[in-house]
Design a protein that fits this description.
The protein is of the alpha+beta class and about 210 residues long. Helix content is about 30%, strand content about 30%. It has one domain. The strands form two sheets. Strands 1-2-3-6-7-8-9 form a seven-stranded mixed β-sheet. A two-stranded antiparallel sheet has the order 4-5. The termini are far apart.
Amino acid sequence: MRRPNERQLARTLSNVLPLRYRYKAFASVNPASANFRQYWSEWFSGEPLLAQPDVDLVVADLGDLIGIELKYLRLTRQKDKLIFQSPYYEGIGQALALLCYGFDYVQLWHCFDQDIDVTKVARSMESTRSLLHKLELPLGYAALRVMREGKEVIPREIHGSFGDPPLLEYEQAPDPRRYIRSELRNPICREVGAKRMREFIEHVLRIPKTK
């Protein structure tokens, strides 16, 4: 099949996570959409809804609300060759912007297409984790391989290995809760603006109020 785009991958994960882990998951949440704007005008009459980034995945579980930024990394054609040139810091800025929604935790998931050499995948993963750790950014990080089998898109969790091959691949998608640690809790989730956006998202998605 053709390579999926990020929106299709978000839909796949929003179906897989509830089946595998029993979480509620919502794909491609766009606070600037007409549906959100209608509710916003009812809640905050006369106040404009500021431009906000889309949320690729929203996961609700055990009182926590998790926002996930997905980046689908693939080979690109350059001078009749397919090469991997996606920067290891891809998506960090968008993930940081999601902190303003009042999520308890925000995560960045790098989704590597199956055609990318595993050595390059492992190097990119390590560079991303190192940057997040050194800067002490409040972002969880997971890596996936996007496998295509017939008409199916199969996201599989991967981890770096110290041996050969350089990747450990699992049969399932990542569990978002595995990437939750106390030091990664959103430091601004209790600010007035962030709390209001969180309540707004919970209202539109009909998620029972968690805080």
